[in-house]
Amino acid sequence: MADMDTGMRIGPVSAAPLTVIDRHPPAPDVLAAVRGGLAQQPRQLPAWLLYDRRGSELFAEICRQPEYTLTATELALLRHHAGPLCAGCPAGTLVVEFGAGSVEKVSPLLEALAAPAYLAVDISASALQAVGRRLQAAHPAVPMLGLCADYGTLPDLPLPADWRDRPRLGFFPGSSLGNFDPAEACRFLAGLRPLLGSRGQLLIGIDQPRDPAAIEAAYDDRAGVTAAFELNVLHRLRRELGAEVDPDGFRYRATWEADRSRVAMALVSIGRQRLRLADLEVVFSDGEPLITEYSYKYAPAAFLELAARAGWQGLDRRCDDADGFSVHRLQPLAAAPDCSASAD
Known about the structure:
Elements lengths: L19 E3 L4 H12 L4 E2 L8 H10 L7 H16 L8 E5 L4 H10 L4 E6 L2 H14 L5 E5 L19 E5 L9 H15 L4 E7 L4 H7 L6 H17 L8 E8 L4 E8 L3 E5 L2 E5 L4 E8 L3 H10 L2 E8 L5 E8 L12
């Protein structure tokens, strides 16, 4: 999602606002999602709540921190391998990006394809508008739309009539699949099959396990930007849902859990305190965590096993020199998905 200085020439950002279709979850649905998460043990909030306007700005800052190398690594792979990664995509392909990324990440794909169209899907309308303006300035000949929605529960793509027959290339960068637990990830990938169609392909960025100290540093930068990003979710609960909670009563913590191959990001209660939301009251004990997100890491073989259960077959894989991050190209399998074997 970060706009990095890569030398791309896009000129003044003077494009018209991106047309955005609004399917953002209504406030009662957001409240229900928060209630469900607070009833879990450990208590947990849905990760998509992190991405309001301020959250999207802070995430862009995270991507510029020296400890967080994922963005630059993925960008380099996309710029060097866009041609092979788009192989087999015919003229007129619709690129569907799940999570409004950066101009720089999707641009190599739009340049490698003939007469493409572009649909950006994101939970944050402000992120869609910001990225949309820059993309329209960089690619004025590419028709574009935005869809403000939770892409994790998207039942269909509300496309204009003249877009519905375009072959589709799904694009899910940033290792965002890691925010789902393995069972959820399988169901999410399986749900992309009808969205992208039997002719569709999927490009997906996957972060891999590596040195635990480097992983924890990437999710807890010295400048404290990630901590501010995670704590912002409490400010959002106060602002949008009227929650009574003291953000200063929590500290941020990121921990690598090797047995589950994931980073656990949490807001840890400082002392005993209460969170009140509508008619709900939750008491946090001293040191109790409120999970804001997980980030699962998959070795290449483990990811392809997960993808196969979800009904996808690997066609290509490009990785960095250290083999710590991959971009996979997938196509649908003939067999139906079977996520019953997926486990956390």
